[in-house]
Each structure stands twice: as C-alpha cells, then as structure tokens.
C-alpha cells in the first residue's frame, strides 16, 4: 500500500489558517442568516399582499387543467368509437390546445418536480465525491463506502436536509491525509481546520440552495425594481389580475365544450 504523502505542516501557519478560517466562517454564516431572514420576510409579505390573488390564480389554473383532461378523455372515447367508421368526420370534435398565457413566476414554494431535480443534481455531485471506486487505499475506500451508503439512503428517502449535510462532509483524501499525520498537536490543529472547512462547505451549500429558491429569486427581482424606483408589488398585482381574467375566459369556453359533450352523450 502506498503511503499518503504528508505536506510540511507548520504549527504557526496552521494557527494562522485556523483563525482566518474561523473569521471566514463567521462572515459566511452571517451572510446566510441575513439573506434567509430577508427572504422569509419577503415570503410573509407575499402572503399578506398577494395571498388571495395567488390562491385564485392557482385554483383557476388547476380547474382549467382538469377541464382539459376531461375534454381529452372525451375525445379519446370518440376516436375509439369512430375507429373504422367511414362516415366519421375527422376533427369535428377536436379538443383545442391549451391556451398559452404570459405566465409570471409566482411566489410559491418549489414544486415536487423541482425538488426532485434539485435532489438529483446534489446526488450526482455527492456520487462524484464519494464513490468508492475513486478511493486510493483501503481506509479511504471504507470511509467513502460508508458515505456513499448514507448518500444513497438520503436520496432514496428524498431527504434534502440529509443530502445537504453530507455535502459538507470531508472528502476521502482529507480523511486519509489526517490519519497519516504523526504529530498529535499538528493532527489536532489540522482536524480543527478541516472541521471549520466542512462547516463552510455546508454553509455554501445552504446558500446555493437559497439562491435557487423561487421566492429568493423574486426577492432579488423586487429589490432590483425598487432600486429603479418601480413597485414590484403593483406590477405583480396587475399581472395576476390579468392572468385571472384571461384564465376565467378560457375556463368558461372549456366548460361550454364539456357541456356539449355531456348533452351529446
């Protein structure tokens, strides 16, 4: 087995690195907490100022999709009944395509599909870091096997919190390197530094996830518009009211077509 080469650690340099890492961690945690608080406050404002309009928009969208599904089922039934009928007229009962609206991003929570995609991306990232085939030695392989097993369990359970925690764990090479340090004092300093760096990675992972959140993106957009002297709230209210009106018109048309199918049955 090839021995892991040891970098020339110096206690004085390690102490300096430790202090710098602590300061960086404090700054990163403060930045994350500040943005989390701002996004949560913005989320609450959305519920207070736009909650009724958002709920009405989502309810109308769901009802429209339900009508379209029913119409498609009726259409499929007619196509089966007319199959092979030489007197059937093609297209006379065709269901119209979904009307496309100028959609806007709503301040709502991530959809299950978005959450699954985020979990898949994080899983692939962790698999590249902890796959046992990448290990250089038996100790490293044992560590990476355990980590990969934990990653698989978290992914199967769609536990995003566990996946984010695992993203902050040490790489297999760092674990092997730590075990190879002979000086107890230097090993302890190096271990402390690695723990701080692990916490930094977790904070960075949390920050990246926050930046991808739908509400966080809308918060940044609102900030930009406010800086330009524009009201994001008024713009969104107008857009929501316009979408509600257009969705109602489309829904009435779809309901009329459904009534025709019911009458003809």
Structure in a nutshell:
The chain is mostly helical and 265 residues long. It has helices at 11-82, 112-130, 138-156, 160-167, 172-180, 184-212, 214-227, 232-264. The protein is 77% helix and 0% strand.
Secondary structure: elements and pairs:
Blueprint: H1 11-82, H2 112-130, H3 138-156, H4 160-167, H5 172-180, H6 184-212, H7 214-227, H8 232-264
Radius of gyration: 28 Å
Mean pLDDT: 80
Question: What is the general shape?
Answer: elongated
Tell me how many strands there are: 0
Strand content: under 5%
User: What is the overall number of helices?
Assistant: 8
Distance between the termini: 79 Å
For the largest beta-sheet, the strand count, sense and barrel status come to: none
Helix content: over 70%
* Overall SS class: mainly alpha
Order of helices and strands: HHHHHHHH
Low-pLDDT segments, ≥5 res: 1-6, 87-103
Please explain how this structure is put together.
With 265 residues, this protein is mainly α. It has a domain at 111-180. Helices cover 77% and strands 0% of the residues. It is built from eight helices and no strands. The N and C termini lie far apart (79 Å). The model is unreliable at 1-6 and 87-103 (pLDDT under 50).
